[in-house]
Design goal:
6 strands, globular, two-stranded antiparallel ribbon, 300 residues, alpha/beta
Amino acid sequence: MSLEAMEDLHLEEPETQEVNGILMTKMISDNWDKIWNFQARPDDLLIATYAKAGTTWTQEIVDMIQNDGDVQRCQRANTFDRHPFIEWTLPPPLNSGLDLANKMPSPRTLKTHLPVQMLPPSFWEENAKIIYVARNAKDCLVSYYHFSRMNKMVPDPGTWEEYVETFKAGNVLWGSWYDHVKGWWDAKDQHPILYLFYEDMKEDPKREIEKILKFLEKDVTEEVLNKIIYHTSFDVMKQNPMANYTTLPASIMDHSISPFMRKGMPGDWKNYFTVAQNEEFDKDYQKKMEGSTLTFRTEI
């Protein structure tokens, strides 16, 4: 669809509807049967994350690996056209993720924010490889809040105080952060899933990119590896229109409210949480994460 046609779109606040107890846009829920029956292929690679956990960053790293560090090649199209977002359903004439994915030749790299229990079963049946990236809850919350302020395709977040409660209760698109990270963590030993942490990727991108290379059974030279690290750094990606979502009109994403790529630093939550909010959050967090072996760092 042309950008001119997009400019003319006036998006109302999206209606939401639950699918199996998980909040989704109504367009996704109306299309759910098709999404659930999506046919994965054995050579698909799926990048799965909770929203605002480093998805686009991981997509760029993977694309650079698959294209042996060819920067021009990785600029061939927007992230969202290179890697179809399988459940994302848009009003015509916009392309829905499912349509893009079904038209795409193999091997495909796909994206999802679905919780593990809602992933189309064909991914498990085909034994497709999955990279899951998890980010600590507090930074995820801050990032999701700002994203919801600027993105007209997701519900308005309300005030910061309201949003903290909304997030804790899991009343956001794709449901509870707690259930999401735990669900995928529990699945990782039964399936070919590489489970990565955003904070680790920030701390030592080289080490984490090497894990991805190994998982994808791919070798690159030291020179290519350094190129990947450089071109997928936050500051470089922030300037890359094929990765920073600035090609979308302000009627869809208003970067003057908050840029899509905002800070990308672990620990930014400290600039938002009051002492009282932080204490309340920690108490609630202990309860919800009890019994899980999953641990997160809230700063590096």
